[in-house]
């Protein structure tokens, strides 16, 4: 079968791989669409420390069931449209014992610690397969990337009395914007790209700020009547926005960090302590986040195609990845159609 392989940093190619070996509890999926994630871009750039090469990327999956193993429940049938929870969980570590499976100490995400879904077929345990005939093939590929932002809002305990700032309006930030609006919060979207900010508005952001063109601090003070936002979601993965999160969040506020900054970030501890901040990380997503995203996509009046920058064939994927690496801030989501 055909597969897309990141052979070494900067080298993407189409390769032939053997068909997946199925276990008794596995489901064989025929891939329809797979999205390129920011972690795939990091792998391409040689900046992902969790990856060993060569690696088949991809964990944002839209597929159809091709075959089921002997121990798969009868509810899984050939021809059903599905997406996949791409994480593993050991069930024994401290995170798993608290049912925070997303933060499993030994997690292996498809396309990162193990080969992913950028191939014609993939076999996965039936427990990781989510069926939904109401969603389109494209919507199914958007479920996983949106769950990450949904999970961050859940971690931030966002309610309808909160004002939430989202730093970084890419795919992850978009999920955070949507979830915060669903919870009734006032949402301020911050980015340096006007196209992404326009999309943020369409997704429900109440205010948008281009921090390259406007004074972020003054804008936030004006919007929040001098208090600052109750919650800041850091989805940009930039030392500048990490520091801005501490500086701009309100006293007794919450900061939720999703993005991986490429370099170390130095903080002045005064505001951290003086404001008595809650600062936490947010990793992957839980089953409830997948359920929430699927419910949203079923009922939303927003055209999900605004989130997709381009759709390419497997043969076009190497060029698409190179172009993305040269202008990462301009791309929301690249889908590969098999």
UniProtKB/TrEMBL annotation:
* Domain Alcohol dehydrogenase-like C-terminal: from-to ranges: 172-298
- Say if the entry is tagged with keyword Oxidoreductase: yes
Domain Alcohol dehydrogenase-like N-terminal intervals = 23-131
Q: Which GO terms describe its molecular function?
A: oxidoreductase activity
| Keyword field | Oxidoreductase
The cross-references to PANTHER family, in alphabetical order and at most eight, read:
L-THREONINE 3-DEHYDROGENASE
In Swiss-Prot or TrEMBL terms, this protein is called Sorbitol dehydrogenase
What organism is the protein native to?
Answer: Draconibacterium sediminis
* Lineage start: Bacteria, Pseudomonadati, Bacteroidota, Bacteroidia, Marinilabiliales
């Amino acid at each position: 079968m055909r597969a897309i392989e990141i052979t070494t940093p900067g080298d993407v190619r189409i390769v032939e791989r053997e068909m997946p070996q199925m276990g008794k509890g596995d489901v064989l999926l025929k891939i329809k669409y797979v999205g390129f994630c920011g972690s795939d871009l990091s792998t391409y750039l040689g900046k992902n420390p969790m990856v060993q090469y060569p690696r088949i990327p991809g964990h944002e999956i839209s597929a159809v069931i091709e075959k089921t193993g002997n121990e798969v429940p009868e509810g899984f049938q050939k021809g059903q449209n599905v997406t996949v929870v791409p994480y593993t969980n050991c069930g024994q570590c401290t995170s798993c014992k608290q049912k925070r499976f997303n933060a499993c100490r030994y997690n292996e995400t498809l396309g990162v610690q193990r080969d992913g879904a950028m191939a014609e077929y993939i076999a996965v345990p039936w427990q990781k397969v989510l069926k939904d005939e109401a969603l389109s093939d494209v919507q199914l590929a958007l479920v996983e990337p949106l769950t990450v932002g949904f999970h961050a809002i859940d971690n931030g305990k966002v309610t309808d009395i909160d004002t939430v700032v989202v730093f970084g309006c890419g795919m992850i930030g978009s999920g955070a914007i949507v979830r915060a609006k669903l919870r009734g919060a006032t949402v301020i979207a911050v980015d340096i790209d006007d196209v992404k900010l326009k999309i943020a508005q369409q997704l429900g952001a109440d205010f948008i700020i281009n921090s390259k063109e406007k004074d972020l601090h003054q804008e936030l003070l004006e919007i929040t009547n001098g208090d600052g936002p109750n919650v800041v979601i850091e989805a940009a993965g930039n030392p500048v926005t990490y520091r801005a999160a501490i500086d701009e969040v309100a006293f007794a506020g919450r900061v939720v960090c999703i993005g991986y900054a490429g370099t170390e970030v130095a903080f002045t501890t005064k505001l951290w302590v003086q404001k008595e901040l809650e600062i936490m990380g947010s990793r992957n997503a839980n089953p409830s986040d997948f359920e929430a995203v699927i419910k949203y996509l079923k009922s939303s009046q927003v055209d999900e195609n605004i989130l997709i920058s381009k759709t390419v064939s497997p043969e076009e994927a190497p060029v698409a990845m190179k172009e993305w690496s040269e202008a990462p801030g301009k791309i929301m989501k690249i889908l590969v159609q098999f």
